[in-house]
Amino acid sequence: MSGCACFLVNKQNRLYVLSFIEFAVNLLVMHRFFYLSLYIKKESQLQFNLFDIKTPSLVGVDISSTAVKLVELGRVGEGKYRLEGYVIEDLPKDAVVEGNLTKINEISEVFKQAWSRLGTRLQHVAMALPPASVISKKIVLPDNLPETEIEFQVQAEASEVVPFAMDEVNLDYQVLGPSAALDEHVDVLLVASRKEKIEDRVAVAEAAGLKVLVIDTEANASQTAYEGMLHLVPNGGRGKVVALIVIGAAMRVIVFVDNVQVYVRDLSFGGNNLTQEIQRHYALTFDVAEKLKRKADLPENYAVEVLQPFLETLIIQIDRALQTFLTSTSYVKVDDILLAGGTSVLPGLVEAVSAKTGVSTQRANPFDGMAISGKIALKKLEMDAPALLVACGLAMRSFDAP
Ligand SMILES: Nc1ncnc2c1ncn2[C@@H]1O[C@H](COP(=O)(O)OP(=O)(O)OP(=O)(O)O)[C@@H](O)[C@H]1O
Ligand SMILES: [Mg+2]
Q1: Nearest protein CA to atom 26 of ligand 1, as residue
Q2: CB of 256 within 8 A of CB of 235?
């Protein structure tokens, strides 16, 4: 298995951590988090309950660093989705910092406005935690343990890896299946997050009178959305190494091999750097620079003096990120690149990334192939769709139930 240099296996064949953060990230290397989520179910001995996958229809809610994003999907016919509505409502600067909801009242107000613009009758939502707020660990347990004993073991293991008091933590687990390492054992994935990270998000939804049914991880929501876009990738992604590069305010590189998520890295460079450059170049405030950037309403010298140098730096960062992936794993090449995130709409970016990396590149639209409600403006959707990857993946949780 590539990309798991940070794991050690001890005598009991349990995986142990060399680097705590790397562990969390690299665990994604080893698993499809397909059903993974933290369900709110207070009566459970653990505070959350995994794998209870029956959910009523819900709205996907991504509270990102720049906006509250909502996506509502419906079903038309067997296995086909319909985008019923979406909203992107901008947040004030620094309301969300590194995934932390720092200005909760402001965020709640923006959320209420977003919800009222969506105009849905649904009352349930799915939300996601960023990778930095999630701690994961795989453990190996005998395959004949009763549920209560698994819970006990999970709690004991969690107390070893979680650097907080256990009463500050929400914990959940999922039995992944028979262990490859040990006969008559199963692999169990435990997932933990500080309660406050979850409670902040729940508070925002509850302030709008809504109920949170699913707390997922952003990595898993991206995976779900990616699986809805496989028809865009040659051979449906089978046997391929596909890099999904999400360029929002910052950047996230997710690599799938044979459609299994094997690598996730967050980089600080992204759309914020372009806004800051506009701010500096034209002596504007950040907010004004941000507005003018999105409207492309900037002086004539913008394209040559600001945009072009930014694009050059951005494609160098992307190329470097892919090289880092290749050198830290056993994979020798990337077959395809999908660009997502609000910054991916910059003109010329797809072509520039393709030219620099030599890899076939396209913009990701998580709604491609879905029916679209008549009330949605298609031209606007085309620009907005790449930023809605996580919200779309969350909304797809509505249809987990068989
Ligand atoms: N039309 C546009 N032209 C250029 N940049 C745009 C446009 N629309 C949005 N952006 C930029 O995209 C970024 C927001 O994208 P996105 O919504 O994907 O980010 P996010 O999810 O809020 O941030 P994060 O990187 O923390 O996930 C901002 O930097 C914004 O300026
Ligand atoms: Mg984002």
Answers
A1: 65
A2: no
- 353 and 242 in a common domain: yes
- Closest atom of ligand 1 to 252 CA is 25
Q: How many domains does the chain contain in total?
A: 2
Going by CA atoms, what residue is nearest to atom 1 of ligand 1? 294
* Protein residue whose Cα sits closest to atom 27 of ligand 1: 248
Kindly state whether residue 384 falls inside one of the protein's structural domains.
no
**Does residue 66 share a domain with residue 134?**
yes
Q: Which ligand is nearest to the CA of 271?
A: 1
Residue 382 falls inside a structural domain: no
More confident residue, 185 or 7: 185
Q: Where are the alpha helices (DSSP H) in 296-336?
A: 302, 308-328
Over 50: is that where the pLDDT of 5 sits?
no
SS3 291: helix
Can you give the residue range of the structural domain that contains 68? 7-222+389-397
pTM of the model: 0.85
Is residue 179 lining ligand 1, measured as CB closer than 6 Å?
Answer: no
Q: Is 192:162 a contact under the CB 8 Å cutoff?
A: yes
Ligand number nearest CA of 251 is 1
DSSP 8-state assignment for residue 232? G
- pLDDT at position 207 is 96
Q: What's 270's domain CATH number?
A: 3.30.420.40
